[in-house]
Design goal:
globular, 286 residues, binds ligand C2E, alpha/beta, binds magnesium ion, 19% strand
C-alpha cells in the first residue's frame, strides 16, 4: 500500500513539474512575439516633491496585453523573459518607448524626468550602452532627464561590465537610481564605487512606519537611509507611500521625493499627460 501511494505522490509531483514547465515554455513562446505584435504598453506612475506636491518625474512600468489573459504586470512574466534573453528585446522597447514619451513631454516644455527599469541581464550585455544611446539619438530626448533603475543585486552579479556601462551612461548625463534600496544582499561598498544619483527606499521600509504609533526602530532605519543619501550627494525617493501618515513622517525625516498609491497608481500615457496638465489630444506629438 505504502509503495503505491509513494508512486502516486511521485507521479503527482512529476505532473506538477511538467505543468509548470509547459506553462513557462508557452509563456516564453508568447513573449518572443509580444514586441512585434505590439502587445506591450508603458504605464506611468508619478514621483512627487514631498514639500510642494509637484510631479518631478515619472516611472515607466511595463504592462503586457496578453491575447487571452488580459493585462499582465511584470510580476507574471519578467522572470521568464530574463531566463531566456527575451529581456533584451523587451528592455530595448521599454527604453525606446520611454524616451519617445519623454521627448513628447519635453517638447511641450515640461520638466519631468523619466525612470525606466533595467534587468540584471541588461548590464551584463556589453552592447547595452549602445541600446540606450541609440534610443536617445533616435528620439531626441534629453539624456539628463532619463534615469535607469537597477537593483543592488544587479551590481553584484555584473561587477566586470556594470562599472563601465554605468560610467558611460553617467558621462552622457543619464541618472542611475538604486531600486528597492535596502532589500539586496550586497555590502554598501558599491555606493561609492558606482556613479549612483538616487536611492529609492523599498516600500517594505515605508510600510513599516505606517502604524499610528510608529516603531522607533523602523523610523530610525528610514531616517538613516535618507541621511546617507544626503551625505553622499544622492537624491532619495520613498517608494510605496499609501497614507498621509507615512507622507507626514517622511516629510519630517527630510525625504525629498515620494512615489506611491497615495498620489496615483500607474496609469497609461494619455492619462499621465492629462495629469501633467497637457491636452490629451496632443499626447502623440507631431
Ligand atoms: P518597481 O520598479 O519597484 O516598481 C514599483 C512597483 O510597485 C510597481 O509594480 C508599482 O505599481 C508598485 N507600487 C507603486 N506604488 C505602490 C504602493 O503605494 N503600494 C504598493 N503595494 N505597490 C506600489 P509593477 O508595475 O507591478 O511592477 C513590478 C516590478 O516589475 C517593478 O518593481 C520592477 O522591478 C519590474 N518592472 C516593471 N517594469 C519593468 C520594465 O520595464 N522592465 C523590467 N526589467 N522590469 C520592470
Ligand atoms: Mg522601479
Ligand atoms: Mg522599487
Ligand atoms: Mg519593487
Amino acid at each position: 500500500h505504502a509503495k503505491k501511494s509513494g508512486r502516486n505522490t511521485y507521479a503527482f509531483y512529476n505532473d506538477a513539474l511538467t505543468v509548470e514547465a509547459n506553462h513557462k515554455l508557452r509563456l516564453a513562446v508568447e513573449l518572443r512575439q509580444c514586441v512585434q505584435n505590439e502587445e506591450l504598453e508603458l504605464y506611468y506612475q508619478p514621483q512627487v516633491d514631498l514639500v510642494t506636491g509637484d510631479i518631478i518625474g515619472v516611472e515607466a512600468l511595463l504592462r503586457w496585453h496578453h491575447p487571452e489573459r488580459g493585462l499582465l504586470s511584470p510580476f507574471h512574466f519578467i522572470d521568464v523573459a530574463e531566463e531566456r534573453s527575451i529581456i533584451h528585446d523587451i528592455t530595448q522597447w521599454v527604453v525606446e518607448t520611454g524616451c519617445q514619451q519623454l521627448k513628447v513631454w519635453q517638447d511641450t516644455g515640461l520638466n519631468v524626468s523619466m525612470a525606466v527599469n533595467i534587468s540584471p541581464r541588461n548590464l551584463a550585455d556589453v552592447a547595452f550602452t549602445q541600446v540606450v544611446f541609440e534610443a536617445l539619438d533616435r528620439t531626441g530626448a534629453d539624456p539628463r532627464f532619463l534615469e535607469l533603475e537597477i537593483t543592488e543585486n544587479t551590481l553584484i552579479e555584473n561587477q566586470a561590465n556594470a562599472l563601465k556601462v554605468l560610467e558611460q551612461l553617467r558621462d552622457k548625463g543619464v541618472g542611475i537610481a538604486i531600486d528597492d534600496f535596502g532589500t539586496g544582499y550586497s555590502s554598501m561598498a558599491y555606493l561609492k564605487r558606482y556613479p549612483i544619483s538616487k536611492l529609492k527606499i523599498d516600500r517594505h521600509f515605508i510600510k513599516d512606519i505606517q502604524s499610528q504609533s510608529p516603531d522607533e526602530q523602523e523610523v530610525a532605519i528610514v531616517s538613516a537611509m535618507i541621511a546617507m543619501a544626503d551625505s553622499l550627494g544622492m537624491g532619495v525617493v520613498a517608494e510605496g507611500i499609501e497614507t498621509l501618515h507615512q507622507q507626514a513622517i517622511l516629510h519630517e525625516l527630510g525625504c525629498t521625493f515620494g512615489q506611491g498609491f497615495l498620489y496615483r497608481r500607474p496609469i497609461p500615457a494619455v492619462e499621465m499627460s492629462e495629469l501633467l496638465g497637457l491636452d490629451p489630444e496632443g499626447e502623440c506629438g507631431a
